[in-house]
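Question:
Now give any protein.
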Amino acid sequence: MQLKGFTLLETSLVLLVSCFIFWLGFTLDQQTVEALREENFFRELRAEWAGQFYRATQKNYPVNVIFLEDHVSFFQGDKPEKVIKYPRTLKHVGPPRQYLLSGTLAVHPQTETFRSTLGKNYSLRFQLGYGGQYRIVEKKHA
């Protein structure tokens, strides 16, 4: 009497295909998570920039913003107010740069560039906007 079942080759083939499909889904999921982390970084940076500028104009107390290799720091005087770390897929391009936010001083138009390991480049342009507001414009280059 012959037993019915799958051979070792058939079972191995099904296992190999299943592992490939799982790996593919996991890789795409990781890229999605990293892309969301980049978006959240820029959203938090925009919100913090606007909040610090508002506080600087209301209290007439200047705020220093420093872009470093792995994070952005917001200082009021010598005290760090907020530190925002870059996602691991995002790298700041160029030397560290400092900006002064104040209700009476203007920021000269500057550009901060970031490169992503996900294949994107971001340019943040800081400039004096309408009504004394600073704007951060994000440009994605494929």
